[in-house]
Amino acid sequence: MITQRIDAITRIPEKYLHRVLPAPRAVKIELTSQCNYRCGFCAHRLRLKDRGEMDFTLYQRLVGEMVDAGVEELGMFYIGESFMCEWLPEAIEFAKKRGIGYVFLTTNGSLATPERLRKCMAAGLDSLKFSMNNSDEQQFREITSVKTKLFHDSLANLKAAKKIREEGGYRCGLYASSIQYNGEQQERMLALVNEIRPYVDEHYWLPLYSMGSMTTQREEELGYRPTAGNQGRIGALREPLPCWSAFTEGHITHDGKLSACCFDAGDRWVMADLNEVSFMDGWNSSLFTNLREAHLRKDVTGTICEQCVAYK
C-alpha cells in the first residue's frame, strides 16, 4: 500500500542518520515546473523562478546515474503538474527499462484524461495518486483560482482510472490523498472522500504544509493553519527535525538542481547543480552534508531550514 511506502521514506533508518549517505531509496524528478492550478497553499503560485521542462537528454543521464547508485523508486513529479509534459509516458518507459523498480506519480488529476492514463499505465507506471483537496466547486474556486470545470475533470478522471486499469490488465496502484482541514470544512471533505474511495486502492490524509514557510501569509485569508516542516502523513507524523526530506529522498528540479527540500519552489534549498556534477556528488556535496549535520544536531539556526521548522 502507498502509506507503507510513504512511511518507509519518512521514517529515517539508522544508516541514513549521517552526514554522508548512500543513495536515497527514492527520488522525485521534475519533468516540468508548469502547473495549471494556482493553489493558495502552494508556493508554486508565487513564481519564484523561471518555469520550463527538463531536457530529455539530462533526464536520461540522471536516471542512469540514479539506477547505478542504487535508487529504487522514482517519482515523476516535484513541484509542477507532470501531465502537462507531453513526454511523460516516454519518461516512465525509459525509467522502467533502465532499472527503476517503482515509478510513481502524483497529480491534481485535471489533465489525467483516460487517453493519457492509458499511455502511462502501458508504459509501466506502478503508482498513481490523485491529490483531492477541495470538497466542492466553491472551495475549488477559492483555493485554486482556476475555472471550476477542472474540479469536475479531476473527479471524472479519477473515476475513469480504475476502469482503464481493469480493461488493460495494468498493475498500477491507484490512490488519493486529501488535506485534513478543520471544523466544517473537514466535514465537507468527508463527503468527497466517501465518493472517491470505491475508485482507489487507498486514501490517506495529509496536514496542511507551509511549503517551507513560504505560504503562511495566506493562512488568515484561507482560514487554515499550516504545520512546521514536512511531518509526513496524518497517522504517522514525524518530528520536524531531522527532516527526512534531506536524508531519504532526493528532489531534482526541471533545470537540474538538486534540492534538500520537497517544497522548494524557488531554489532556496539547492545543494548542487546536476548539470555540472553527478547525482551522487550532488547528494553528498559540502552544502548538503553541512545541512544534514545541523539537522542531526536538531539545531538549524542560521540555515535555510530555520524559518520552516520554527514555524508554529
Question: What can you tell me about this protein's structure?
Answer:
There is one protein chain. The chain is an alpha/beta fold and 312 residues long. It has helices at residues 2-10, 56-69, 88-98, 114-123, 137-144, 149-168, 183-196, 219-222, 279-283, 286-297, 306-310; strands spanning 26-29, 73-75, 102-107, 127-131, 173-179, 202-206, 249-252, 257-259, 270-273. It has a nine-stranded mixed sheet, with helices on both faces. Strand 1, helix 2 (56-69) and strand 2 form a beta-alpha-beta unit. Helix 3 (88-98) runs parallel beside helix 4 and helix 4 (114-123) crosses helix 6. It is globular, with a radius of gyration of 18 Å. The two termini are 31 Å apart. The model is unreliable at 211-215 (pLDDT under 50).
Span from first to last CA? 31 Å
Radius of gyration: 18 Å
Secondary-structure-based class equals alpha/beta
What is the N-to-C order of secondary-structure elements (H for helix, E for strand)?
HEHEHEHEHHEHEHEEEHHH
Secondary structure: helix percent: 25-40%
Q: How many helices?
A: 11
- Give the number of DSSP strands: 9
Average pLDDT over all residues:
90
Q: Which consecutive residue ranges, at least 5 long each, have pLDDT under 50?
A: 211-215
Name the quaternary structure.
single chain
Largest sheet: 9 strands, mixed
Tertiary shape: globular
Which percent band covers the strand fraction?
A: 5-15%
Q: What is the topology, as strand order, of the major beta sheet?
A: 6-5-4-3-2-1-7-8-9
